[in-house]
Amino acid sequence: MRPIDPEIAPKALNDLGQLGSAVGHNVINAFSAIVSNAELLRIKLASNANPVDPASIADTIIDTALEASSVARRLIDFTRPITTIGEDRVTLDRLVAGYVEARREAESQGLTWSAHLEPVPPIRGQAGQLESMLDLLVANAREAMAPGGEMAISFSTSLDHRGWVMLEVRDTGRGMEPEVLERAVEPFFSTKIGHLGVGLSIANGIWRRHRGTLSLSSRPGEGTALRLCVEPCEP
User: Fold this and answer.
1) Where is 158: in which H helix or E strand?
2) pTM above 0.70, yes or no
3) Which of 43, 84, 160, 189 has CA atoms 20 to 30 A from the CA of 77?
């Protein structure tokens, strides 16, 4: 076994400790809720008093267990190393155009969609994974936009100065302070109570598996822009 580089070991252990603490906290809370609801169900069924609906308590137990298991699945998605993504050629401007059209037609919460898509060369990837990534980015943007204010998200494709394919996703949300922006893609980091803070981390993990890079630009009150770049396929 190759020894751990002593210069990176402290950071690795610190990251592992933070991740383990976050996972443990979520799982412990989930199992506490499961046990509490199971005890309530047993007490109510054993008494002659008017019980609460057992099906409702059972649903709560099931939902809580599923949410706890999703933490593990998200952790696996985040930590999965870069692996092959197949040999499919995906044209990102076409994929995004279809995605935006479908989501715009299904939109029911007042979000305005726009797209400015220049034709770009194809990339190696899996369309399903990329659409899941877009879902996560949209969900993250939606959470940052206050109801009653402007709620808009825009997509654009182009080539950067290196000839790499570039996708930009912009929203009209609250924007982020510098200290929040610095940690935005960390797993389990969130400024919102009740949120696991894994959506952007998983999206970044999917894009990394496509050998791409992700960067963010944001200021309070000015929304957020995500820039995703990836080298195109060989002709």
Assistant:
1) strand 152-159
2) no
3) 160
